[in-house]
Write a structure and sequence with these properties.
Length: 273
């Protein structure tokens, strides 16, 4: 790896290698998910959806010290997508027939219990409230009202997972791609507008116009919003346990918002990471 260049470390680590190749190093135990990412990327390309391309001569993840590693063609110089640029890509994906791939059903609660277990900055009262809220949200998810037809969903639809080059916009990162309500993808931008305050009214209107639906008018939206808010709060609490000096205030502000201590949305949540 002497000539490798670190691009980003998050849930996975991305390294730029010689020859226009990007290595994606996944967490241990994620070989099946890494293989699914490769399959989804190839399927999207076959369907004509612009997506990052895996190396054709490496059809499966390579295991290195317990970490599954996948290899991808590096994109030309690019920037992150805007919400209006994400919307048409999502619409195309949502309209595709569900493929004969082992995608699994969307589970918006994956890893949440583990993150709460690792949230060492919580007192007993906050932990009980979070455990009870998690159970409420799981019950509400099971009772979602009818909406758009179930489809393939990207699962993590935000600007960082769209790369815009001089010629096109490409979808990236298929770790959470599955089958479920397409409103889940749309709710990501809606929460950016309604909860974070990071998406302006004009940007949100452009997103809705580009996709053709305003998910915030759907009766099930409050459930998806609440789940997404809960997810990012658990993520912040996990980070606060690792680095309290940097993340304790952000994490516990989010928790206080969920508990009704800071008035109505938007709450102006700052990014964690």
């Amino acid at each position: 790896m002497a000539r490798a260049e670190l691009i980003r470390i998050g849930e996975n680590a991305l390294w730029r290698l010689p020859g226009g190749v990007v290595a994606r190093i996944c967490r241990p135990g994620q070989s099946a998910a890494a293989g699914r990412e490769l399959a989804v990327a190839r399927w999207l390309r076959e369907c004509g959806v612009p997506a990052v391309r895996p190396l054709e001569w490496l059809r499966a993840p390579v295991e290195v010290d317990g970490h599954p590693v996948t290899f991808w063609e590096e994109l030309p110089p690019h920037r992150a997508g805007t919400v209006a640029e994400i919307a048409p890509l999502l619409r195309v994906v949502h309209e595709l027939p569900v493929p004969d791939l082992e995608l699994g059903r969307l589970d918006p609660f994956v890893r949440l219990a583990a993150r709460l277990g690792e949230a060492a900055t919580l007192d007993d009262g906050a932990r009980r409230w979070l455990d009870g809220r998690l159970a409420e949200l799981q019950a509400a998810w099971r009772e979602l009202p009818a909406g758009l037809p179930v489809s393939v969903v990207h699962g993590d639809a935000w600007g960082g997972n769209v790369a815009v080059t001089r010629d096109a916009a490409y979808l990236l990162d298929f770790e959470r791609t599955s089958v479920g309500p397409p409103e889940w993808d749309l709710a990501s931008t809606a929460v950016g507008y309604g909860t974070y305050g990071s998406v302006s009214a004009e940007e949100y209107a452009a997103f809705c116009a580009a996709y053709g639906v305003d998910v915030m008018t759907w009766a099930g939206y409050p459930v998806l919003r609440d789940i997404r808010e809960f997810r990012v709060t658990c993520f912040a609490l996990q980070h606060a346990a690792i680095d309290p000096d940097r993340h304790h205030e952000k994490a516990h502000y989010r928790l206080a918002c969920l508990r009704g201590e800071h008035g109505p949305r938007p709450w102006g949540w700052a990014p964690v990471g």
